[in-house]
Amino acid sequence: MDVKQSLHRIYEIFSALLNYPEPDLLERAQEGLVLLAPVNPEAAFRLEEFCAFAEKTSPGKMEEVYTHTFDLQMVCSPYAGYHLFGESHKRGVFMAKLNEHYRSHGFSAGNELADHISVILRFLAAQEDLHLREALLGESLIPVLKKMAQSLTENNNPYGKVIESLLLVLEPSSAISLRSASSAHPSLREERKGIRNAI
Known about the structure:
This protein has helices spanning 3-17, 25-36, 41-55, 59-71, 80-85, 89-104, 117-125, 130-154, 158-170, 181-184, 189-198. By secondary structure, it is mainly α. It has one domain (3-198). Helix 1 (3-17) runs antiparallel to helix 2 (25-36), helix 8 packs antiparallel against helix 9 (158-170) and helix 8 (130-154) packs antiparallel against helix 11 (189-198).
């Protein structure tokens, strides 16, 4: 597996980890750990902590933790558009734009909304358009993940380790600011402007 294939596979793995838990959750996390260890030890270290939690946690409990983390706390909503625009019409425009890109690249969001972070990651895993990929990462996904990381880290949530690990893959410089995401993310005004222009 070359570097590009490895990166795409890592995106797929994180997409699975940030979706509702499947029976192979631990295996996916361990595969990600193997891929990350030689190229990004810091990201691997955080994912290893999640693996340790998943290994000792029953499937039912993992589902409960996921639901409590992402479905019952709006600050950790898995929908990027919600973080960027709230429940305004702008979120609808954002999702419509995403769906346009998905269709033009032969990609389907399946039964999930277009702005679910797991769907965006799955799309990135198959994406060869560098401009679009950089726009999605810089203008939406990375700012949203930083915001989520702060809340999850403060609550010592195991999914915080997944988010932190992913941030270190997408933006290695995040290592400096993982513990102070709010100061690095005081406003989404510029990100919103960029999304309108680049996506």
